Amino acid sequence: MQIVVLDGYTLNPGDLSWESLFALGSVKMYTRTPPNEVVERAKDADIILTNKVVLTAEMIEQFDHLKYIGVMATGYNVVDLAAANKRGIPVTNVPAYSSESVAQLTFALLLELCHHVGEHNTAVKQGEWTGAPDFSFWKYPLVELAGKTMGIVGLGNIGRKVAQLAQAFGMHIIAHHKHPERDRMEGVRFTSLEDCFQNADVVSLHCPLNDANKGFVNAGLLRKMKATAFLVNTSRGPLINEQDLADALKNNVIAGAAVDVLSTEPPVSTNPLLSSKNCILTPHIAWATKEARERLLGVLVDNITAFQSGKPTNVVNDPVK
């Protein structure tokens, strides 16, 4: 089978082995593919693998040999599922491979908001400690998490890992979740979305992006938060109205924010969060530990193997047979 990888670099910039994938067919590997080259590169493919390269309906209609699309990520909004359904092409994703890593970065960002480790390290190296009149100084308010309330929006695999870490820090947990009865968790109290934002000291987003929740974190919801509260987003950038968040930070509506994802990636230079005060930004790295990427590659290969054996797994669409 002809396998075309449209954007393999972020999954494997050179520290992993593609050997298990190459054993499954004839592989054409591209580090990145611009939109205007997708059709030409994948025109003979039986299998297309993509991470962030978009496959539109118009493109899918032109792939005469295409039998399978594998998304090298959990989110699959880069593929037009309706077009794949119409062609009878299964689309698969890789769920739950990065839960531990994303939860870990969630707390790395939160702890940075609490202690500003990077800023204090810079201050020390610039001589502020050697010239200080006291044995200790701090440039920002320092926050202890024990006894605070963590509000989690989306209690799926990652949200549950975050809840476990929050409990280890002695935090109280509230959550807004689509299926509270199905996904009960000890020590977690379910609330409405508004109550979650209003009562939490930290709100952390872990819900998937869809048409209904795009931009749901807006000025009105941010105004419900405590003035001392933090917002953390390691989920999807478009969940937040970025101008509203920038305005909230500027006007001290909330105390700080930390985001690993933005509405457009890479961001445009005019993104208002790039110059916002009390806002920590990281370049979509939560998923990217080597351990998580190894798991991703393993499931990716397993998905293709299952498809080739006639028993596809992790299918996210409903292809017409």
TrEMBL record:
Record carries keyword NAD: yes
Gene3D superfamilies per record: NAD(P)-binding Rossmann-like Domain
Record domain D-isomer specific 2-hydroxyacid dehydrogenase NAD-binding: where: 107-286
Domain of life: Bacteria
Record-linked Pfam families: 2-Hacid_dh, 2-Hacid_dh_C
Keywords: NAD, Oxidoreductase
All copies of domain D-isomer specific 2-hydroxyacid dehydrogenase catalytic, residue ranges: 26-317
InterPro entries: D-iso_2-hydroxyacid_DH_PdxB, D-isomer_2_OHA_DH_cat_dom, D-isomer_DH_CS, D-isomer_DH_NAD-bd, NAD(P)-bd_dom_sf
One MF annotation (Gene Ontology) recorded for this entry: NAD binding
Oxidoreductase among keywords: yes
Family of this protein: Belongs to the D-isomer specific 2-hydroxyacid dehydrogenase family.
Protein name (Swiss-Prot/TrEMBL): Glycerate dehydrogenase
Species name: Chitinophaga caeni
